[in-house]
Amino acid sequence: MKIMLTRILVDDQAKALAFYHYVLGFEPKQDLAMGQHRWLTLTSPNDPNGVQLQLEPEVHPASKAYKAALKEDGIPTATFAVRDIQGEYIRLSAAGVQFHQTPAEVDNVMTAIFDDTCGNLIQITQLH
Fold first, then answer.
1. DSSP class per residue in 85-104
2. Which of 16, 69, 109, 127 might form a disulfide with 55, Cβ 3.0–4.6 angstroms?
3. pTM
4. Domains in the chain, start-ordered, CATH in brackets?
5. What pLDDT does residue 128 have?
6. Looking at residue 20, what DSSP letter applies?
7. Measured CA distances, 2 to 39, 54, 103, 118 (Å)
8. What InterPro entries would the database entry show (predicted)?
């Protein structure tokens, strides 16, 4: 068994696609119309056949409250691995990404947390 797909609830799929593709660098994989929403997935450019990240519209009644509670408590919705956290921090900051935690050592890994502009906190992690 392996992970095939993971989701991030987003408030606007078009805005999320622009952020996750053009700012973070993920590659679009699937974009299918599904009524007023889309089945929208991306993958890592380093692993185009790997785990897909679905940008899921927050249509479930509990999703807004769930996302708000996580954000209020400073809990990231997802964690992405990076090779050079300082370099990513500089690149993303220059692109206007708002960080809630600058790169810091946490339990033998470096982490940073930023706002994805779609209602989520995202953590990036560099393993030693």
1. HHHHHHHHHHTTPPEEEEEE
2. 16
3. 0.94
4. 5-127 (3.10.180.10)
5. 81
6. I
7. 21, 16, 30, 27
8. Glyas_Bleomycin-R_OHBP_Dase, Glyas_Fos-R_dOase_dom, VOC_core
